[in-house]
Amino acid sequence: MKYLKLNDLCNVITCGVAKRPDYVDEGIPFLSSLNVKENRLILNKYNFIKEEDHNTLTKYNKPEINDILYTRVGSYGEAAVVNIDFEFSVFVSLTLIKPKHNLINSRYLMWYLNSPKVRDFAKNNTTGVGVKNLNVSVVREYDVPLLPIETQKAIAEKLDKADALRKKDQELLKQYDELAQSIFIEMFGDPVQNEKGWEINELNNVSTKITDGTHDTPERLSEGIKFITGKHIRPFYIDYKNSDYVTEDVHKEIYKRCNPEYEDILYTNIGVNYATAAMNIVNYEFSMKNVALIKYNRNVFNGRYLEYLLNDENFKDRLKNKFGVGGAQQFLSLKQIKSIEVYLPPLELQNQFADKIKNIEAQKELVKKQAEESENLFQALLQESFNFS
C-alpha cells in the first residue's frame, strides 16, 4: 500500500488561535476540542465571538464544509468532518485540516485519523506536562495510506454504515434509560417538587448504616480482593470487572467498618462524579475508597427506587446547592449524606417500580449484546479498511 505524508494530501493543516478573543452573548460560534467527539461535531454548547474578530481569525483559513477538525489539546486525536453550513472560528485546541479533495476523501481521512493505530500514534507523540498537546508539526508528518479516490469513497461509505448501525444500538439503549426515568417521574413525581406529597425523612433515619470506605491509599495489586473506588461507579452501574485489588489483610481491616452487601447502595462522595448512586449486585466481598455505603432500611425502601431517586439530576442539583458543593469542593461528607432528605412513597409502589425496571433491564441486556456485536463489526471493518493486522 502506498503512503503519503498528510501534509502532501492537504492544502492547509493549521491550529486555531492561541489567544482567546473576548466572548459575547451573540455572534459567531467559536468551537474548541469540546465540540469534536466520536467522529462528529457536538454543537450543543459553544461560545460566541464578535464578527470582526471572526473575520480576522479566518482571513486566510476559513473552515468550510468537508474540512476536518482534529483535536490537539486535552482530548487529542479525535477527528470530525465539517458538515455545517454556518461560519465559525476555532480555538487553539483544534487543528484545521483542508484536504486536497482530488487526492483524498474527507470521510476516508477522518476514519483513518480516528482508527486505533493513529490514535495510539497520536498518544505517543504528544508533548507537555499535565495537559498534553498534539503539535501540528507532528500531524503534518502522519503517513496516510493512499488508495484510488473511488476506493476511498467506498471504504468511507462502508464505515459510515457500520457506524450508523452501532450508533442506532447505542441510541436504543439511551431510549430505554429515558423510559425508565419517565416511569420514575410518572409514578413518584418530581423528586424536588414532591407534588404527590410523600412523607419526607433524613436518609440516616431510614437506614441501618451509612459509612464510607478507607481514607488511606493501600497498595494496588493485579490480583487479590477487589477494591472499588469512585472511578468504578457510574449511575446505576458498578464496574467490578476493571477494579483494582488489595491484599486479604488490607481488605479485612477495611471491611470491619465498611461491609457492602447485596443490594446495598454505593454512593460516590468525592471527585468529578460525586453524588452518583449504584446498587451492589454481587454477593462476594470487596473493599472501597472514596465511596459511601448506604445500608437502607429494606422495610422502608426498595433499593432500586432509592438508586433512581439519588441519581435524579434535579435531586442532585438540589443537594449540591443545599450543601454548597461544586467547583473546587467536589465532596460530600458523611454528615451531609446522612442528612439528605428523601421521599418515602409506599413500599408497594416502590416494588411495582422495581418490577418495571427489571423488565426494562432485561430488554437492555438484549440490546447490549446487539450493541457489542455491532461495535465489534465496526472495529473489524476499521482494521480491515486500513490493513491493520
UniProtKB/TrEMBL annotation:
Position of the signal peptide: none
An annotated Gene Ontology molecular function: DNA binding
Record lineage: Bacteria, Pseudomonadati, Bacteroidota, Flavobacteriia, Flavobacteriales
Keyword DNA-binding listed: yes
Source organism of this protein record: Algoriella xinjiangensis
Keyword Transferase set for record: no
Coiled-coil ranges per UniProt: 357-384
Domain Type I restriction modification DNA specificity: residue ranges: 2-171, 197-373
Gene Ontology terms: biological process: DNA restriction-modification system
Annotated family: Belongs to the type-I restriction system S methylase family.
Keywords: Coiled coil, DNA-binding, Restriction system
UniProt name for this protein: Type I restriction enzyme, S subunit
PANTHER family assigned to the protein according to its UniProt record, in alphabetical order: TYPE I RESTRICTION ENZYME MJAVIII SPECIFICITY SUBUNIT, TYPE-1 RESTRICTION ENZYME ECOKI SPECIFICITY PROTEIN
